């Protein structure tokens, strides 16, 4: 049983024709289901709780990356399958997962090729793509085994699924680990050189000298201690043939 | 793990500007250009860069050392010391390849192994056993 969650913005006039075409294609493919519209004060968690009770097994997001993150976070604990019909921008997560924009995404849904993706956790918040910490000095503590100490300031990124290929930090979201990158500048012969450390982790603590503010897929967190962990195979998602993972 | 980034597949990289303290372990290959104190144990291969400062015992399947290691080195198969390598500690490996200019101060053990010393153009290499 399908439930379609439309983001607020897809109800704008400019998406009217595309949305009508999507709905027609869904009917043709026999994938009809309940349609729920997100609104400013309507949290996805409440919607999902209600749909779980009515026996929904697949939730299809009609929207952009932000919509996917909101809904994905809500469905993980209920072991539901996530489908995506990308509309609007940005839609980098759908692109990585091989899901074409608009109507063509309906054909991906019908094939039901399901992949289990890892999720990352930072303190009590879940993320599916990556989080970037601002330039600071810090320590990565691997349980009580060892510390990785940054001797100078650097940018820290924790990547589960990199959505920007330009960044060059592609990580595999099905390997059960998060990839932590530390980018620093060290003195060179004529000018500073960029160096990058790469630390795979299942669980580690990230400690900074000063409090920093980070954004984890829509949630802002401020502090100087962050508990990082990987949740292997947490999100079941319908993917396309052209996926790059 | 199948990381596809700049550092290559599944490789842990300890770059310059980073120091590891404690008992560092890895399930894959490790590239060290920074500093380590404690111990290093990897199930794959370890590459120690020219700028690396290792004050630790090292164990791995294969290793290439170009930097400074103060500690015992225990390698399952092949150990290569490049011309810039400086090792102070006992060394154990099946095969050891030493380039002219490298420095090794310690006991060398090779169970059923082969020692290859490249012919030096300038007699800079020294083994103190």
Automatic annotation (TrEMBL), chain A:
Record InterPro entries: ATP-NAD_kinase_N (IPR017438), Diacylglycerol_kinase_cat_dom (IPR001206), NAD/diacylglycerol_kinase_sf (IPR016064)
One Pfam family from the record: DAGK_cat
Residue ranges constituting the DAGKc domain according to the UniProt record: 46-126
One MF term in the entry's GO annotations: kinase activity
Name of the featured protein: DAGKc domain-containing protein
UniProtKB/TrEMBL annotation, chain B:
Domain of life: Bacteria
One Pfam family named in its UniProt record: Bactofilin
Family the UniProt entry places it in: Belongs to the bactofilin family.
PANTHER family hit by this protein: HYPOTHETICAL CYTOSOLIC PROTEIN (PTHR35024), POLYMER-FORMING CYTOSKELETAL PROTEIN (PTHR35024:SF4)
Protein name: Cell shape determination protein CcmA
Biological source species: Candidatus Uhrbacteria bacterium RIFCSPHIGHO2_02_FULL_53_13
Organism phylogeny: Bacteria, Candidatus Uhriibacteriota
């Amino acid at each position: 049983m399908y439930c379609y969650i439309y983001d607020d913005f897809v109800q704008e006039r400019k998406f009217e024709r595309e949305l009508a075409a999507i709905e027609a294609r869904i009917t043709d493919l026999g994938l009809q289901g309940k349609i729920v519209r997100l609104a400013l004060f309507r949290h996805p968690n409440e919607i999902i709780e209600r749909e779980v009770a009515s026996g929904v097994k697949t939730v299809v997001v009609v929207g952009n990356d932000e919509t996917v993150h909101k809904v994905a976070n809500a469905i993980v604990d209920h072991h539901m399958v996530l489908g995506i019909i990308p509309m609007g921008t940005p839609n980098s997560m759908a692109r990585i997962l091989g899901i074409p924009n608009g109507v063509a995404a309906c054909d991906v849904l019908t094939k039901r090729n399901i992949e289990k993706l890892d999720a990352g956790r930072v303190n009590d918040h879940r993320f599916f793509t990556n989080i970037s910490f601002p330039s600071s000095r810090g320590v990565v503590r691997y349980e009580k085994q060892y510390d990785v100490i940054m001797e100078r300031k650097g940018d820290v990124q924790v990547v589960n699924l990199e959505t920007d290929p330009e960044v060059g930090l592609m990580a595999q979201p099905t390997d059960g680990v998060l990839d932590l990158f530390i980018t620093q500048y060290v003195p060179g012969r004529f000018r500073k050189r960029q160096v990058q450390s790469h630390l795979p982790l299942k669980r580690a603590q990230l400690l900074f000298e000063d409090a920093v503010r980070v954004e984890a897929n829509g949630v802002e967190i401020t502090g100087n201690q962050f508990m990082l962990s990987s949740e292997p195979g947490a999100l079941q998602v319908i993917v396309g043939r052209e996926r790059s993972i | 793990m199948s990381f596809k980034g700049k550092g290559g597949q599944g490789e842990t990289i300890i770059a310059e500007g980073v120091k590891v303290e404690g008992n560092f372990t890895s399930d894959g290959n490790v590239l060290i250009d920074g500093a380590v104190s404690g111990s290093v144990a990897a199930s794959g291969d370890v590459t120690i860069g020219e700028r690396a400062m290792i004050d630790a015992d090292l164990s791995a399947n294969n290793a290439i050392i170009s930097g400074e290691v103060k500690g015992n080195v225990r390698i399952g198969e092949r150990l290569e010391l490049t011309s810039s390598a400086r090792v102070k500690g006992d060394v154990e490996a099946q095969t050891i390849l030493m380039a002219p200019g490298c420095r090794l101060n310690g006991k060398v053990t090779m169970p059923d192994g082969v020692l290859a010393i490249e012919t030096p153009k300038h007699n800079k290499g020294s083994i103190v056993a």
